[in-house]
Amino acid sequence: SLSSSASGTFDSIGVVGLGLMGHGICQVAAASGVHSSVVAYEPEQQYLDKGRARIEESVNKLLSKGKISQEQADATLGSITYTTDPSDLSNTDFIVEAVIENMDLKKDLYGSLGSVCKPDTIFASNTSSLSITEMAEISGRPDRFVGVHFFNPVQIMKLVEVIKTDHTDQAVFDAAYNWVGDIGKVAVTCRDTPGFIVNRLLVPSLMQAILMLERGDATCKDIDISMQLGAGHPMGPLTLADYVGLDTCYYIMEGWCTKFPDELAFEMPAILKAKVDAGDLGRKTGKGFYNWDGDKRGDPVE
Fold first, then answer.
1. Is residue 149 annotated as part of the catalytic site, yes or no?
2. What is the tens place of the pLDDT at every residue in 178-215?
3. Contact residues for 255 (Cβ-Cβ < 8 A; gap 6+)
4. What is the pLDDT of residues 92-120, one digit of tens each?
5. In what order do the strands lie in the sheet with 94-97?
6. DSSP 212-251
7. For residue range 229-288, what is the model confidence (pLDDT) as tens digits?
8. Which listed residue, of 112, 130, 144, 156, carries a Cα 20 to 30 Å from 136's Cα?
9. Does residue 289 contact residue 213 with C-beta atoms inside 8 Å?
10. CB 3 within 8 Å of CB 157
11. Residue 149, CA atoms < 13 Å, CB-side half-sphere
12. H/E segment holding residue 82
């Protein structure tokens, strides 16, 4: 309804990149009903089609499970405009960028977005490991730039870390923070520090579990059971590393070790590098610290 779209922080938003994270952000934003339009942009038609299929599949799954009505499904899918033309983003109020974690690619993207978007469009990056400040400074609008870090799967995970830099205008930050609430998520705020809150605490703790296994202090299974039953974690750290992807864990830590060589919390286990080099990336390849059959975890790898 028009009345609900008028009450949101932003009237029209864009999502750039419809991969693992982007398609979920697009879907959640569309489902919230607080925007008059959601523009989904991918430069190549094949990736746009892939993202669209993912969104439609996810919405239809919710519909078949009775989580949403046919009317809600139609409204969600009907509010998204899919495009390969960047000029379709020109009138959006807020753009979430969710392209791959490559600074050169992002720099090119922000250069081109800056030239097509109206001057007051706010840019928000969903990066989990790159510097928001660095992107803000090359965007041409550092005062209108924030980080909004969603968690995977976006449709289920409630948290969004909202990041302000020294350049971010307070009103811009407040608008981004409020938007997170508009779309039914929970916002927390953090300075532009490596890994923000969650990854800065989580990734080094996963590395400590891997180092413990590497030293032979305890077995894979016992480390995981201990953190579940002794610390109340829903899954143990080695299972979680496999679940996230050992390559993802590796690239985050490798980036930090390179950029912050004096930070003692950033340490790379040799067995993690060995597994990634061997192509054993965890759940998605069927083998990591455990054997996997799809999403079903088997025994630890001997």
1. yes
2. 999 999 999 999 999 999 999 999 999 999 999 999 99
3. 129
4. 999 999 998 888 999 999 999 999 999 99
5. 80-83, 37-41, 12-16, 94-97, 122-125, 145-150, 159-164, 186-191
6. HHHHTSS-HHHHHHHHHHHH--SS-HHHHHHHH-HHHHHH
7. 999 999 999 999 999 899 999 999 999 999 999 999 999 999 999 999 999 999 999 999
8. 156
9. yes
10. no
11. 24
12. strand 80-83
26: amino acid identity, one letter: C
**Token pair belonging to 125:** 């990056």
The distance of Cα 124 from the centroid of its chain, to the nearest Å, equals 12
Q: E strand or H helix at 78, and its extent?
A: helix 70-78
Contact call for residues 82 and 53 (beta carbons, < 8 A): no
Residue 223: CB partners within 8 Å, gap ≥ 6?
209, 212, 213, 236, 237, 238
- In the predicted model, is pLDDT for residue 1 greater than 50? no
The question of whether 97 is a catalytic residue gets the answer no
Condensed to tens digits (0 to 9), the pLDDT of residues 278-287 reads 999 999 999 9
Q: Are 134 and 163 in contact (CB under 8 A)?
A: no
pTM for the model stands at 0.90
Sequence letter at residue 76: T
The answer to whether 279 and 273 are in contact (CB under 8 A) is no
Residues in the chain: 302
Q: Which of 128, 129, 131, 139 is catalytic?
A: 128
